[in-house]
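Hello again, I could really use a second opinion on something today. I've been puzzling over a protein and I'd love to understand its fold better. I'm sending you its amino acid sequence along with the backbone structure tokens. It would help a lot if you went through both lines with me. I've dropped the whole record in just underneath, so have a look.
***
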Amino acid sequence: MTFNTGIEGLKTPALIIVLGKGEHGVSLDTPDPYLILRIKTAPEGRRRTKTKDNEVNPVWNEEFTFFLDGAVDNKLHMILMEANYGSLDQTIGEAWYSLNDLPPNEVVTKSFFFPKDGKSEVELEFRIHEE
């Protein structure tokens, strides 16, 4: 199955990312985490999860659909953030993942560690839908 992007003549496979659990290391402050997902090569390529207030081990269970161009290098940029109400939000860490080698019509689950603090882990599930 291919998905129509609404652009005349352009059809691309869809990537659906299902956010699983996040685990954060011991901290003096209880985090309010959220995750920003960016794919520069995708139309509407920036999404974010809901903020999980006061959650050391958040579970998001959110789905996002991106339309990919198979002719370019599609990289997912993940930014794990800490919401700071009343001041600027803080970056916990960043990670990147190349999407081009994902097998079509299969579920792939990956865990990502965010190197800024070395303790934060987020699990994502990927599905590329193609004919």
